[in-house]
Specification:
Blueprint lengths: L21 E5 L2 E6 L2 E9 L3 E8 L10 E3 L4 E4 L5 E4 L4 E3 L5 H7 L9 E5 L4 E6 L11 E6 L4 E4 L4 E9 L33 E8 L4 E3 L7 E4 L3 E2 L3 E14 L3 E9 L7 E3 L1 E5 L2 E8 L1 E9 L3 E14 L1
Antiparallel strand pairs: 1-2, 2-3, 3-4, 5-6, 6-7, 7-8, 9-10, 10-11, 11-12, 13-14, 14-15, 16-23, 17-23, 18-22, 18-24, 19-20, 19-23, 21-22
């Protein structure tokens, strides 16, 4: 309730139409979002108490979970499918690499249904959103942003909610009291050095479509990366292998490829061998090629280099 004693007040922002869709603190101030506009709120004291100055007439956020505060700035998915960063001074678009993909895959019907999570330890932001294939309004795709490296990725999953699970400390004496645990074989499939076992550890988690809480601390089952098209309009090339470089190698690594004579044509599937002696062997000629690497198990990859040689020109 409004109060002169506590300097609480209410009001409306009428500079642009529509209601407020999101609001996050930024330092000692606040940023209010509408669908297509933003306002920066500063404490003024009586009689105004809070003053809201318009930041943008075209950039806004569709819902509360679209905006993630990382301390010194907000990073959010705008209603126009662009990813933005706001530090209290300027609104900077940072999602040009994924804007077209996000616009094509983000459901226009369920744009206000986003679940987000901030993984501070790894400098990651997860946005779970409804794709164009979602018929029930539950998020089924996920855009991930590493704000330390400025890189985007995906971690698709169909969920009901994205949360941070705070685990309690587990001791040797408590092992037998865990739900469903009676023997060593029935312990959770979690590494012994996982933060799962530590007192008051924050673990990224989600609520799946079966209404069960799932921690994101298990071993990766499957993942993949796909290159862009590489090649030349005039120069044919012979693709003879792909050399990935790992910080931590996966349990398995396989590959596939496709080629075209001209960009825009229907791709032709090509054969790629399994990883052997640090390389996935292949042997095909083309002007343009695209390679996919498939992994099982936890891993960290720095990059992959195709081994190519010239094969004639026009």
């Amino acid at each position: 309730m409004p109060s002169q004693a506590t300097q609480a007040a209410n009001g409306i922002i009428i500079d642009t139409p529509g209601g407020i869709t999101a609001g996050r603190a930024l330092g000692t101030n606040i940023v209010a979002y509408k669908t297509d506009s933003m306002f920066y709120g500063t404490f003024q004291g009586p009689p105004t108490i809070w003053a809201f100055n318009q930041i943008s007439q075209v950039v806004g956020a569709p819902c509360q979970e679209a905006v993630v505060a990382i301390g010194t700035r907000h990073i959010f998915i705008g209603s126009d499918a662009q990813v933005y960063s706001y530090d209290g001074a300027t609104v900077d678009p940072i999602g040009d690499d994924v804007k077209d993909w996000l616009y094509a895959n983000w459901s226009k019907l369920y744009r206000d249904r986003i679940e987000s999570r901030h993984d501070k330890e790894n400098s990651l932001i997860y946005w779970y959103f409804c794709s164009t294939q979602s018929s029930d309004g539950k998020p089924d795709k996920c855009l991930v942003y590493n704000y330390r490296r400025g890189k985007f990725g995906r971690a698709d999953a169909k969920i009901e909610a994205s949360v941070i699970y705070i685990s309690g400390q587990i001791t040797w004496d408590d092992l037998g009291t865990l739900p469903g645990v009676s023997t060593w074989d029935t312990l959770p499939n979690v590494p012994y050095n996982s933060s799962y076992w530590s007192q008051a550890s924050e673990i990224p988690a989600l609520v799946d479509t079966n209404h069960k809480l799932q921690s994101l601390s298990g071993v990766s089952q499957s993942s993949s990366i796909t290159s862009g098209w590489f090649g030349d309009d005039l120069q044919n090339m012979s693709v003879q292998g792909v050399v990935p470089r790992f910080v931590k190698a996966p349990a398995t690594c396989t590959g596939s490829a496709q080629s075209v004579r001209m960009l825009g044509e229907t791709p032709i599937p090509e054969t790629v061998g399994e990883l052997y002696d640090g390389e996935l062997a292949c042997d095909f000629d083309c002007r343009y090629a695209q390679i996919t690497l498939n992994f099982t198990g936890d891993h960290e990859i720095l990059g992959a280099v195709p081994r190519i040689t010239p094969a004639g020109s026009l």
